[in-house]
Design goal:
- By secondary structure, the chain is an alpha/beta fold.
- It has helices at 12-20, 45-48, 52-68, 84-87, 91-99, 103-108, 119-132, 135-138, 147-150, 163-174, and strands at residues 23-28, 34-39, 73-78, 109-115, 141-144.
- The protein has a single domain, classed as CRAL-TRIO lipid binding domain (Phosphatidylinositol Transfer Protein Sec14p, 3-Layer(aba) Sandwich), CATH 3.40.525.
- A hairpin with a 5-residue loop joins β1 (23-28) and β2.
- α1 (12-20) crosses α3 and α3 packs across α5 (91-99).
- The chain is globular, with a radius of gyration of 17 Å.
- The protein starts with 11 loop residues before the first helix and ends in a 35-residue tail after the last helix.
- InterPro entries: CRAL-TRIO_dom, CRAL-TRIO_dom_sf.
Length: 209
């Protein structure tokens, strides 16, 4: 059973994240599991500054996990229109927040659907994913280059898709070479894999623009 948490129990960073609606619960997938929707474009990374990990940890612990309760769940992460300097919290913040989840919650997470992954992110996670994240999370990662592939797992009526994500999907249909980094997007680089706050040197993976 979900537990109701008063907003006053969360700190300012988590409240800022809540107001952004970057992370919300949206219905069930085709197997009846809860769906956590993450809209990267909504994440207030610039406003949070160095408090991104704090906000993620608090918001997940105080709001999302109590609402999920003891159910199994999946994550749909929409990477469309993400820019490293504006709305990307950094791999370190994501890793830190995930690693602090209770072991039972990690076990109940069944899949992470990564929608609209840039070429740089695919290469980055293929190269460093196993070192940055536990095998339990890495093996649950599923790339979804188009929204149509998401619908094989989640009914359209169960997941609200923001306009920015739909528009990016339409743009990819018109300009398929964007999937391979050969043609730049209208917003240029989605984020630079070489600068995802890790110690790894990835200068060769800088975005094509």
């Amino acid at each position: 059973m979900a537990v109701t948490v008063e907003k006053g129990s969360m700190g300012e960073p988590a409240l800022l994240l809540e107001r952004s609606r970057a992370i919300t619960l949206h219905g069930r997938d085709r197997k009846g599991r809860a769906v956590v929707r993450i809209v990267g474009n909504y994440f207030p990374a610039r406003a949070l500054g160095g408090r991104a990990e704090e906000a993620l940890r608090s918001y997940l612990r105080e709001r999302i996990l109590p609402e999920i309760g003891d159910r199994e769940f999946v994550v749909v992460y929409m990477h469309s229109r993400v820019d490293r300097g504006h709305n990307f919290p950094g791999v370190g913040a994501i890793r830190g927040a995930y690693e602090t989840l209770p072991a039972a919650a990690k076990e109940r997470l069944r899949a992470v659907y990564f929608v609209h992954p840039a070429l740089q992110s695919r290469i980055f996670f293929a190269t460093f994913g196993r070192f940055l994240f536990s095998s339990g999370l890495y093996e649950k990662l599923r790339y979804m280059s188009r929204l149509e592939y998401v619908w094989a797992h989640i009914d359209k009526e169960q997941l609200e898709v923001p306009d920015c994500v739909r528009e990016h999907d339409d743009e990819l249909e018109r300009r398929p070479l964007m999937d391979y980094g050969i043609e730049a997007t209208e917003t240029r680089c989605m984020y630079d894999a070489a600068s995802m706050d890790t110690s790894a040197s990835l200068h060769s993976l800088r975005c094509v623009s």
